[in-house]
Design brief:
Elements (H helix, E strand, L loop, with lengths): L3 E2 L5 E2 L2 H7 L10 E3 L3 E3 L4 H7 L12
Antiparallel strand pairs: 1-2, 3-4
């Protein structure tokens, strides 16, 4: 699957990938980048427990 970057810098995730991973409009995704290995885009919730934050942000911190 290929994605695309639009003129405004928005990343377009193919419908097949959105359906496969349950990505819905308004979902928050993390962009993890490595200069040699590229970019990974996991759902924010995948790291909430690891970093002690909920999908709404850390306590007292606006989203």
């Amino acid at each position: 699957m290929d994605g695309a970057v639009g003129e405004k810098g928005q990343i377009v995730i193919p419908k097949q990938a959105r359906d496969l991973f349950g990505i819905k409009p308004g979902d928050t995704l993390l962009l993890l980048g490595d200069g040699r290995r590229g970019i990974a885009i996991p759902p924010r919730e995948a790291f909430a427990d690891l970093f002690g934050a909920s999908s709404e942000g850390r306590a007292g911190e606006p989203r």
